[in-house]
Design brief:
By secondary structure, this protein is an alpha/beta fold. A seven-stranded mixed β-sheet has the order 8-7-6-9-12-17-18, with helices on both faces. Strands 13-10-11-16 form a four-stranded mixed β-sheet, with helices on one face. The chain is built from eleven helices and 18 strands. The chain binds 5-S-methyl-1-O-phosphono-5-thio-D-ribulose.
């Protein structure tokens, strides 16, 4: 998608380096950063220079490529794989991508290993683009239906950033929105700020602006009253891990939006590529929920009056704060799952129908 009119993807490989857009600096500074070693890739995932379930999976895949360039010894690669998987715990795409890479390269001791790894990482990225595009085409029908009934702007609420910046291109939750916009359907997006890291305000609003899509940033607790006032036609969010029973783990606060949508009879959709499905965990209580540094809550970053990026303390220094990064929305509150293969119920039967 576009930044200042120029087409970008979120990650690419060039001259034995991985190129990323440093998302910790957006929307104020656009910086393309080089990852030269597997440690750089791990650090980029941990510090959220790259973030969003599909993108951290792709970064981990390219992290393994960097690891092979450094040292193609199998024990070094295995250790890199373990460190990459544990760099963030909740999004299943990370393990999915590393496992897929390891299946290709484990036990390969010849010079072929680097080529194999590069091809597989590229394939993971290309597949994600294709899947996210299909999510858009499938989700477009839902927006079209609402528009055909309403004959007026479709108001869509989203939480966090499940946009193209969280994937390789298109995004998951935003892909149906981009497709609707390209098809001439008037859309407007309510963008949850998404405290504490403000991915909604800093990233979703930024990328929608760059594509010329109308959007309004709202404080995280505003969605409920907008729904009561009839100002939300539908919600679409992304997910970091969807269980085979349709329970959805996504950015903290998603659950409360789903409850409000349910109470107000507003469709609540979750968009995901199949790489985000965890077929193994049976109970959502077993999903590892990331707890991040409490300073993400107590400090905020923005531009000072001179236009420099500056971090400031916003809470009493003595106060304790807690920073759980994800929550789980039970399947019963989810109207449907928009996947690359079509739309299904958030249930075991629904997912089985699409993914045999
Ligand atoms: O902590 P983040 O910014 O990595 O969380 C991202 C989300 O919660 C997204 O909604 C999710 O990864 C889906 S991305 C298409």
């Amino acid at each position: 998608m576009r930044i200042e009119g120029k087409e970008y993807k979120t990650i690419w490989f060039e001259n034995n380096r991985v190129k990323i857009i440093d998302q910790t600096k957006l929307p104020h500074q656009f910086i393309v950063k080089d990852l030269k070693t597997v440690k750089d890739a791990i650090n980029a995932i941990k510090t959220m220079e790259v973030r969003g379930a599909p993108l951290i999976g792709a970064t981990a895949a390219y992290g393994l490529v960097l690891s092979i360039i450094e040292n193609n010894d199998q024990s070094f690669i295995k250790k890199s794989a373990e460190e990459l998987i544990s760099s963030r715990p909740t999004a299943i795409n990370l393990k999915w991508a590393v496992d897929r890479m390891m299946k290709k390269i484990s036990g390969v001791n010849s010079a072929k290993i680097l080529e194999l790894a590069k091809n597989e990482a590229k394939e993971i990225c290309e597949e994600d683009i294709k899947f996210c595009k299909n999510i858009g085409i499938n989700g477009l029908k839902i927006i079209e239906d609402i528009y055909n009934k309403k004959k007026d702007t479709v108001n869509i609420l989203t939480h966090c950033n499940a946009g193209w910046l969280a994937t390789i291109n298109w995004g998951t939750a935003t892909s149906p929105i981009y497709h609707a916009h390209k098809n001439g359907i008037p859309v407007h997006v309510w963008t949850d700020e998404t405290r504490p890291r403000n991915q909604g305000a800093n990233l979703t609003s930024y990328e929608l602006n760059e594509e010329g899509i109308k959007n309004t940033i709202i404080a995280d607790n505003t969605g409920g009253i907008l729904m009561q006032r009839g100002q939300v036609d539908m919600c679409i969010v992304g997910t970091d891990r969807t269980l085979a029973n349709g329970d959805v783990c996504n950015k903290v606060g998603t659950y409360l939006k789903a409850l409000a949508a349910y109470d107000n009879n507003i469709p609540f959709y979750v968009a995901l590529p199949s790489s985000t499905i965890d077929w193994n965990i049976k109970n959502h209580k077993d999903i590892p929920i990331e707890e991040r540094n409490s300073e993400e809550l107590s400090q905020m970053e923005g531009l000072d009056e001179k236009g420099n990026l500056k971090k400031i303390q916003i809470y009493p220094k003595k106060s304790k704060s807690m920073n759980l990064a994800f929550d789980v929305t039970p399947a019963k509150y989810v109207t449907g799952l928009i996947t690359e293969k079509g739309i299904c119920d958030a249930s075991k039967e629904g997912l089985k129908r699409l993914f045999k």
